[in-house]
Every structure is written in structure tokens, then in C-alpha cells.
Design a protein that fits this description.
There is one protein chain. It is built from ten helices and no strands. The protein is an all-alpha fold and 239 residues long. α1 (28-42) packs across α3 (70-82) and α7 (148-177) runs antiparallel to α10 (220-233). 18% of the residues are buried.
């Protein structure tokens, strides 16, 4: 007789431990905290059940009683990171200001936990912190005259924009760490090369743009805020 096919399961609906028996020496939150520490320190590729078990001091196989699959562990980790959002004085009545705050918070979380960018998916929207995040964001958007579905698109667009910007920031920082010279030297050489290319006349439109703005390095903080404000403005209802 063929075995039964596996059935889908939501980790949040699974009891953390059996109702009977002695209380274990560790919990699901202990497992997730250890996984986050490892991923923060060494990257998501360094994460394994064996490594987690060594960190909290238990047998590897016993972890599967709490977290059956690695995909479940990833979902728990992403939701744990989402618990770091703060919403002081929100909703404030200014939905743009509130959502810009959310974007800045997201940027900070992704910088602290770069692995979230690789793991994040819309499938991870059922955890308690994810639901709290969405509910609070929707509360901030109460005064915005848009359908609920469009508000959800706004939240998703903000999140996607932040992830794209932070992924680029992290990639640049990682590249800079591998250079045998300073980042300032690197930028100076690249700036000089770009100036020579634009002076040749082959790229007149690009040269005009750089002639207006200059080729000096732009402030990442200003770029971030300006980009997010433009994203938010695009959702303002048209008269």
C-alpha cells in the first residue's frame, strides 16, 4: 500500500510541544534565536540544524519535533525579524510620514539581518509579527481613500523598494570590503574614468545629466528617502 502523500501544514498552527511529558529545556523561540544569531554572524548558507543544536546544546534530531522542515525555520526566522518593527505614535494621521517611518525601520532590520532579503516571500505573511505589521500599516493608511487591495499593494511596493535599495547597499559594502584600497580611492578612479567617457561626446544625454547634478557621490540617506517619497506619492488618489 502506497504511503499517504504529505499534507500542507502551517507552522503557526502546529503546537510547539506535546501536551504531556516534562517541560523541555528549550523552546521553539530558543531555536529561532539561535538560527538568527548564526545567520547574522555567518550568513544563511552557514545555517543547519546541526549548527543550531550545537548552539543550544541539544541533539540535532530533537529539533525536528519543534521545527519539522527547514522552510518552517525560515518562516519563523523572518517573522522574528519582523518583530523588530516599532510604531511610536502611529498612526499619526500623516500616512506618508508613517509609511516612510516603516520603510526606514525595514531598512534597519534588513541591514541587521541581510539574510531576510534572500528568504522573504509573500508566503510568509501568516506569522504573528507579520499580521501585526500589516494591521498596523493598514491603520496608518486609514485616511487614504483607496481600496483595501490597493493599500496592500502600497505596503508590498514599499517593502519591495526597500529590499532592492538595501540589497544594492549591502552588495556595494561587501565589494568594498574585498578591495585592497580604500573606497574613496575606488570612487575617485571610477569618477575620473566616467568623466573621460562623457567628455568624448558619445553619450550627450548622459553627459548633460551629470553636468547638471555633478558626478559627486550622492548621500545614500537622501536617495533612500527621496525614492520612498516618490513611491508613496504614486499612490495618491487622482482627482
Amino acid at each position: 500500500m502506497a504511503g499517504r502523500a504529505a499534507e500542507p501544514e502551517v507552522i503557526w498552527a502546529r503546537p510547539e510541544r506535546a501536551g504531556r511529558g516534562p517541560r523541555p529545556a528549550y523552546s521553539r523561540s530558543d531555536i529561532v534565536a539561535a538560527a538568527v544569531r548564526i545567520a547574522d554572524a555567518d550568513g544563511i548558507d552557514a545555517l543547519s540544524m546541526r549548527r543550531i543544536a550545537a548552539d543550544i546544546g541539544c541533539g540535532t534530531m530533537s529539533l525536528y519535533n519543534y521545527v519539522p522542515r527547514k522552510e518552517d525555520l525560515y518562516e519563523l526566522m523572518v517573522d522574528a525579524a519582523g518583530g523588530e518593527y516599532t510604531f511610536p505614535g502611529m498612526p499619526s494621521g500623516d500616512w506618508r510620514a508613517d509609511m516612510l517611518h516603516v520603510a526606514r525601520e525595514a531598512r534597519g532590520i534588513l541591514r541587521r539581518h541581510p539574510w531576510v532579503i534572500r528568504l522573504m516571500t509573500t508566503g510568509y505573511a501568516f506569522g504573528p509579527n507579520a499580521l501585526r505589521f500589516l494591521e498596523r500599516c493598514l491603520a496608518c493608511l486609514d485616511g487614504l481613500d483607496l481600496p483595501g487591495g490597493t493599500k496592500m499593494e502600497l505596503i508590498a511596493t514599499v517593502n519591495g523598494t526597500v529590499m532592492t535599495l538595501v540589497a544594492n547597499e549591502l552588495a556595494l559594502a561587501e565589494r568594498a570590503r574585498g578591495l585592497p584600497w580604500s573606497e574613496e580611492q575606488e570612487q575617485a578612479v571610477r569618477g575620473a574614468y566616467l568623466t573621460r567617457q562623457l567628455a568624448g561626446g558619445a553619450y550627450p544625454r548622459l553627459a548633460a545629466v551629470y553636468g547638471e547634478a555633478g558626478v559627486e557621490r550622492l548621500d545614500p540617506e537622501e536617495i533612500f528617502d527621496r525614492t520612498l517619497r516618490r513611491v508613496l506619492d504614486s499612490f495618491v488618489p487622482r482627482p
